[in-house]
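Rotation project, supervised by the postdoc (A.L.). Task for the rotation student: set up a whole-complex structure prediction and record inputs and outputs verbatim in this book. Inputs entered:
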Amino acid sequence: MKTIETSSRLSSIRELIGKDLDQLRSKLLTIHPADVADVVIELPPEEEAVVFRVLPKEQASAVFSYLPLRDQQGLLKSLSSDQMLSLINDMTPDDRARLFEELPAEVTKRLMGSLSPEELKSARLLLGYPERTAGRYMTPEYIAIKPEMNAAQALEFVRKNGQGKETLNFVYLVDDEGRLVEDLRLGSLVLADPSTNVLAIKDPPLVCVQASDDRQDVLQTFSKYGRAALPVVDTDRKMLGIITVDDVLEAAELRDTEQMQRLGGMEALDEPYTRVDTWMMIRKRGGWLSALFLGEMLTATAMSFFEVEIAKAVVLALFVPLIISSGGNSGSQATSLIIRALALHDLRLRDWFRVFRREIVSGLALGTLLGAIGFLRIVLWQHLHFTNYGQHFYLIGFTVWISLIGVVTFGTLAGSMLPFILRRLGFDPATSSAPFVATLVDVTGLIIYFSVAFLILKGTLL
Amino acid sequence: MKTIETSSRLSSIRELIGKDLDQLRSKLLTIHPADVADVVIELPPEEEAVVFRVLPKEQASAVFSYLPLRDQQGLLKSLSSDQMLSLINDMTPDDRARLFEELPAEVTKRLMGSLSPEELKSARLLLGYPERTAGRYMTPEYIAIKPEMNAAQALEFVRKNGQGKETLNFVYLVDDEGRLVEDLRLGSLVLADPSTNVLAIKDPPLVCVQASDDRQDVLQTFSKYGRAALPVVDTDRKMLGIITVDDVLEAAELRDTEQMQRLGGMEALDEPYTRVDTWMMIRKRGGWLSALFLGEMLTATAMSFFEVEIAKAVVLALFVPLIISSGGNSGSQATSLIIRALALHDLRLRDWFRVFRREIVSGLALGTLLGAIGFLRIVLWQHLHFTNYGQHFYLIGFTVWISLIGVVTFGTLAGSMLPFILRRLGFDPATSSAPFVATLVDVTGLIIYFSVAFLILKGTLL
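Outputs recorded:
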């Protein structure tokens, strides 16, 4: 609950920075580290450093781990190397791995050299997994107990070893070879009779993910089983670490941001809009925009085939944008629906024919609807003398109507089938689908429109 | 980890259904309820009922709560009223509230009448909150302890009262008036010295949300503080319930699905693609498609103003689709970027001018790039004799280049500013933004193109 707003906190803290560092420290200690981080982001660099200097070591690193990557990097430069090391040493290994990944290589190397051997090992371990896999999100700070223990022994073990672990909601039963045998909610452990063997405690069955599992599989496991943390194992079922809920939410948000950006016809930015510099953004947008432009050039080629018809009946040119944009809009609806359904595994590859049949029906219905509106518009404008489409306005109206049925049906089918095709070929279905469908439909739409016009208007206008 | 696939489970279970119910029961008990639910979905209705009949009461309701709403409703009809009541009584209140919401009113009424008074109260309470607020996702099954207790007493209390609660990861310190004083991780409680007063136990500060808080605020609180569960309070800070991680992931997924469908130019479907019937889907798509079509009709009006110019220089018509689609594509990129950044609070309303300046630069750069490609295409095709654009092909090339700078810059600006305007007016910025921008840019693009053509080609082609 945001009882006090960041802005009012900010001004009271800035006041204390210049005046009373003791009072500043006590004020900061009453605020949640995540909220202190919100304030720190707004401070000028020299005042940022003051906040970290007055905070006790443990709070300082908690605040640090809540800062966005860019601010962490900026701060590292303005702190003494002692302060810097203490902050980094206290970060959880998964956060640290992600920080290092973004730092210039020589800084990473210097910093890695200053980690304790244990911490170095976990940072290296985490760094070895490919992007977007479970291994990237895990932290090795969990509690493992032996399957021979009883509930009382296990609780005693948690008491002695639980300080500073990222989460205590689960304890993991790991055998002598390091294999994960069972996960046990701390709640179940507390509720159990003290003399019960931990394996016999009533608790939901084990759920775990593999380090090489894709981000999307991890997300689905989380929402399917409603767990607050999941253990990560290797192919031998050896326990490597756990993934916690904050990392999962971050992964879900990232997945959907990437999908939307791809759907919008560009490369995923990988970073928030406000943090990408303008030239990088232009590059990421320009690439796809040029590719789509090259594709769209086919419309000029297609149009040039009908140059004679356009010269004979200029009225036909008037409806070109209307016809092709309707195809594009219906394609964009279909493609965003199908991409999302594929991403959430509501649809699978094998469902393509079911979707095909369904989208034919939708396309025909929607095309007939739009065509009827278009026909009425032409007839009405003619009768109201808004525009003069000539004596054959009924034929022009029918040309628009029939073309729209064809174009919208084609747009709907192209928009719904393209994601399946991309997925089948091993690409992300979201990759630029919507604009790509629009380009495809524009070219085809022109051919449909002028062919229908040729059939209907031959002998009259053409 | 999916060690055994649903399909192989399905066949072995279907075999047992006809043969050996005891063996079926023991097999089902070894499978996680969420996985049993996956199998049940695939079974024909009469076999579904068998599975629920052989399962012990507690497992049956666990499986039931993992089923999608539609399957729950179908199953309710095929079970005896005793079995039905037992399943519903064992559901968590938040799941039950969502089930009731979707049932025909008379069935809901009959079922609500059969709940215990306590359960009825919580179901009613949950139902009273508006859609997409924290109140809709909460469950009242949490553990509240008195702030006067010490750690040992609190643990003892958890042991006695913890059975059947949705999560035990947190206990909540609630005073005599029902106000939430502090939240305490079960882990911190276990680690604490038994004689410490619970208020003195070292634990991160309280984080809570209000029942009326918007879904997006709840999501942000979850990812900001990395909690596995959050308490929900009313305006008096009285404790109402908790929200757990599965409900949060569901909310995040729903938010992004709605956003993508709106971005694709349609009403949000509210249900997965495979579960919406075709006519409902056509209605939801047809509404926006017709609205966009009506807007797009303005292109026909705009084109008719330039009918004379087109008749004089038919070559101009050839580039109409290319020009307007480039505006649409650049607008769609900008709008999907900005909508996502607004949704994740990376951008706020007050940032509009910063975005405006930045998108002007991007638009000019991208337009110059596309224009250059277009110019080269025209000159090259002319020299290679692919197409004959007449003696003034250089002028036509320049017309296309200059127009693209104007159209792409306008598209980028319209695409980036429209979400801000929609948000300012109180609408969801995602509402049909991309196609709406495309329509706006199509009409404006035509005007820009023909105006530029008029200026450059006056005296030669026009």
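Student's summary: The CA atoms of residues 352 and 420 of chain B lie 7 Å apart.
Supervisor addendum: Chain B touches chain A through 125 residues (CB under 8 Å).
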